[in-house]
Design the sequence.
C-alpha cells in the first residue's frame, strides 16, 4: 500500500537530527471530534506503529525516521474501520526527503493516499494503491510546517494545503467507503526520510 510515497534526500544529511520549527498551536474543535492528537503526552496513545524504532515523540511532535536505506517504509495507524465520512487536519514538517502524507479510509492494505511532495516535485498526488486519481501543483518547502486537510465524503475527496483547496476529485472505482487513518514514512529510491507530524484532528462529516 502507498507505493507512491517517496522520501528523497541525501543519506547522512546534517538535517537528520535538525530540530523542526515550533509547530502551530493545537486548536481542536469542540464538536464532532473523532480523534485529536497533539503528541504532548509521554505515549503514542491510540496510535499503533507497524514496527518499532521508527516513530517517536520528539520536540513536541511525532517524528518518523528510517534508516538510510532504499525502499524502507513504515506506517502508524489510528482510528476505526467504522469511520465513513470525515475530515483529517494535520500539520507536517519534512526535514529530510520529498514526500509526506497520509492514508484515509484505511482498512487492511486498502485506503486512499494523499502524497504531498516537496523539493524537486512541488505537487500533491491522490492515489488508491498504485492507481493515480489526481495530481495538482503546489509549492511546499522542507523545514517548514504545512497544514494538510482532506475531506472524504461519499466517493469524493477534497484536499487543502495551507488553507488553499488544491484537489476536488471523485473516485470512480468507488473502492473505499470506511476506515481509519495512517501516517506514512518511506525512504524511496534515495534512501532517506525524516518527517514530523503534529496536531492531527479527525472530525465527522456525516
Sequence:
Amino acid at each position: 500500500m502507498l507505493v507512491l510515497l517517496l522520501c528523497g534526500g541525501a543519506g547522512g544529511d546534517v538535517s537528520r537530527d535538525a530540530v523542526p520549527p515550533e509547530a502551530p498551536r493545537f486548536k481542536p474543535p469542540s464538536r464532532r471530534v473523532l480523534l485529536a492528537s497533539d503528541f504532548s503526552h509521554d505515549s503514542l496513545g491510540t496510535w499503533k506503529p507497524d514496527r518499532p524504532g521508527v516513530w517517536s515523540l520528539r520536540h513536541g511532535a511525532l517524528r518518523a525516521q528510517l534508516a538510510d536505506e532504499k525502499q524502507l517504509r513504515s506506517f502508524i495507524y489510528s482510528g476505526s474501520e467504522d469511520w465513513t465520512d470525515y475530515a483529517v487536519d494535520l500539520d507536517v514538517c519534512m526535514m529530510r526527503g520529498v514526500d509526506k502524507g497520509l492514508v484515509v479510509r484505511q482498512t487492511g492494505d486498502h485506503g486512499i493516499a494523499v502524497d504531498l511532495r516537496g523539493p524537486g516535485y512541488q505537487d500533491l498526488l491522490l492515489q488508491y494503491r498504485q492507481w493515480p486519481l489526481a495530481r495538482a501543483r503546489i509549492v511546499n518547502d522542507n523545514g517548514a510546517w504545512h497544514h494538510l486537510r482532506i475531506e472524504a465524503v461519499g466517493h469524493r475527496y477534497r484536499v487543502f494545503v495551507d488553507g488553499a483547496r488544491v484537489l476536488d476529485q471523485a473516485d470512480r472505482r468507488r473502492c473505499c467507503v470506511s476506515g481509519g487513518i495512517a501516517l506514512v514514512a518511506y525512504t524511496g529510491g534515495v534512501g532517506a526520510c525524516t518527517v514530523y507530524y503534529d496536531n492531527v484532528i479527525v472530525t465527522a462529516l456525516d
The chain has one domain: 31-204. The domain at 31-204 is CATH 2.60.120.560 (Jelly Rolls). The longest strand covers residues 86-96.
